Amino acid sequence: MTPEEAFFSLYEGLPRQGPGSESSTHEALRRLGKLPKSLRVIDLGCGSGASTLLLARELNSPVVAIDQHAPFLEALASNAEQEGLKSLIQIRQGDFTQLDESPCSYDLIWSEGAAYLVGFEQALTLWRPLLAPGGRVALTELTWLVPTPSDEPRIFWKKAYPGMTTIAGNCSSAERVGFRVLDTFTLPADDWWNEYYRPLRRRIAAFRASHTVPRTIEAILSETEREMHIVERYSKEFGYVFYLLELDENAQLDAIEDEEPVSTQRSSIRDPSRGAATSSRDGGTPSRKSKLGSSAPLSRRSVIETLNVPVDWEARVQLERKFTQLVAELGLIRAQELIATIRERVEASIDS
To answer: What gap in Å lies between CA 17 and CA 125, rounded to an integer?
Structure first.
C-alpha cells in the first residue's frame, strides 16, 4: 500500500475530514442574519459535503460544491441523492484558486476548514470578486485563542501552519482585503472529536489491526496521533473559529486584485491529492490538508509565486506523489524543512 492509498483508506468514509458539526454550521447561518430569497451559494473545499448538504437543505437554494478529491465528491453525490437534494447541489471537481466563475456570481461563499490551504487573507482576496453586492462569506480558520500559547502547541503549529494567528489578526486581514466582520465564534471542543477525531482514531486502530504497517505508513499514523494529542491537551489555547464577513464595496484596496491568483495543490499526509482549498471542508485541520500554505497577503508573494508561467499538470501530479512519499519517509516537519530550503535556493537563483 502506498502512502497515498493509506491516506485515502483512513479518511474516506468518515463523517468529516476535519472539525465541525451541523450545530456549528446552523449557528453560523443564524448569525449571518437575513439572506436573500434567491440565494446563489458556493461551498469551496467541500470535502464529502457535510456543510453542503445542510446548506442546501436549510436554505432551499442551489449550492455549487467544489473539491479536488473525487471520492469525497462521489460520497457527496450519493448522500445528496439519498436526501432528495440532488437537484439543488451542483458538484464540481476542481481547484478553488482556479475558478472560472464570472464576477458577482454568488451571494454567499461557504468554506469550512479550507482557507488555510492558501492562507486566510489570500483566500479572501481570491474569493472577493465572486461576490455580488451585499455578498457574504462564512469560513472557519484555525486560530490562536490566547496571546501566549504553551511551548508544545506553539512549536507544533509554527511548523505545521506558520500563518496561524489570532482572531484580531484574521479580522484585520479580512478588513484589509475588503470585508466587514459581522461576527466570529469559536467551534466547541466536541466539534474536533464527535465526527472527526474519534472516528479517525477507530479507523487508525482498525488499520493497524488489519495490516502489517510499513515504516512509511506508520509515519502518517503517528503524525495524526500527535496532532490529536496536541488538541486534546491544549484545546483552550487554539481552535477553529467561524468568521462571518460581508463584502465592503467602499473598501479602499491595494493593487492586490491585479495580481494573478496563486495556483496551489494540497500535498500533505492528510490529503495528498486535494488542491488548495479544496477538500476538506467538511472542515479540515491543517493536518488534514496541506500545511504549507502561507497567510501572507498576495502583494507580498514570493518571486516563485508571481512568475507568469504555464502549469505542467502532469509534472504537478508527479511532484505531489513524490512529496507524499517524502513526508511518509521523513515525517512532515523534516519534509517541510527540506522544501523550505529548496524554495530559498530557487528564489535566490531567480533574484541573481
So the answer is: 25
